[in-house]
C-alpha cells in the first residue's frame, strides 16, 4: 500500500519538547492586574484565579537551540487557599531562576549571593533570561503540555553551554535582557550596592 494512501502508520503529531531538555529561555509575565502591596505584589503582574489562588501567568520563550522560538506557558504559584505548598513551590522556582540568571550557585550564602536573590518587584523578573529544565504536564483536556518547574544553576554540568559566556559570578542578564559585565564586577565602593541589590 502506498504511503500516501494508507496513513495508519503515520506518526501522531506532537508539539511537546522532550522531558528533561535543557534550554535558555526568557520569562515574560502576562499581567493579571491583581495587587496586594502587603505581600509585595505590585505593578499588576499577579493574577487571581476564580478559586482564590494567586499566581504569575508565565510565558517562557526558548531563545536558542533546536526548540528556539517555542513558547511554554506555566503558572508560578504565589498563594493558594488550600495551604502554603503552592506558594512555597513558586518561591523555590523564583529562587532557582535568580540563581540561574545571575550565575549564583545554590549553595552560595555570601552577602553578594543573598543580595542577588532579592528583587524589587515582579518587574525584575519580566524579561529575565535563564537556563530551564523542561518538564511535561497535562493541560485541562488531559493532553501533554510542556511546563517549567525548575531552573538550571551553575552547579549543573550543562549550565555553561546553555547559558553562554555572558554570565559571571554575581553578573546576570536582568530585566529586558540587560547584558552582564564582560569582566566580573569590582567590589562596589563604600555605600554603593550592585544594581540588582538596590
Automatic annotation (TrEMBL):
Residues 172-198 are annotated as: Disordered. It comes from Bosea minatitlanensis. This is DUF669 domain-containing protein. Residues 172-191 have a biased composition (Low complexity).
Amino acid at each position: 500500500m502506498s504511503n500516501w494512501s494508507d496513513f495508519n502508520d503515520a506518526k501522531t503529531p506532537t508539539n511537546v519538547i522532550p522531558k528533561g531538555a535543557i534550554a535558555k529561555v526568557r520569562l515574560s509575565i502576562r499581567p493579571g492586574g491583581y495587587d496586594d502591596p502587603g505581600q509585595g505584589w505590585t505593578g499588576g503582574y499577579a493574577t487571581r484565579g476564580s478559586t482564590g489562588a494567586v499566581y504569575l501567568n508565565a510565558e517562557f520563550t526558548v531563545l536558542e537551540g533546536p526548540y528556539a522560538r517555542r513558547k511554554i506557558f506555566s503558572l508560578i504559584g504565589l498563594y493558594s487557599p488550600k495551604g502554603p505548598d503552592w506558594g512555597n513551590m513558586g518561591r523555590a522556582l523564583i529562587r532557582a531562576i535568580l540563581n540561574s540568571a545571575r550565575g549564583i550557585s545554590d549553595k552560595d550564602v555570601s552577602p553578594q549571593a543573598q543580595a542577588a536573590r532579592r528583587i524589587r518587584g515582579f518587574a525584575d523578573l519580566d524579561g529575565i533570561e535563564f537556563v530551564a529544565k523542561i518538564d511535561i504536564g497535562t493541560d485541562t483536556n488531559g493532553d501533554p503540555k510542556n511546563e517549567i518547574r525548575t531552573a538550571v544553576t551553575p552547579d549543573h554540568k550543562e549550565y555553561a553551554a546553555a547559558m553562554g559566556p555572558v554570565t559571571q559570578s554575581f553578573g546576570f542578564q536582568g530585566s529586558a535582557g540587560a547584558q552582564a559585565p564582560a569582566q566580573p564586577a569590582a567590589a562596589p565602593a563604600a555605600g554603593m550596592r550592585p544594581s540588582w541589590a538596590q
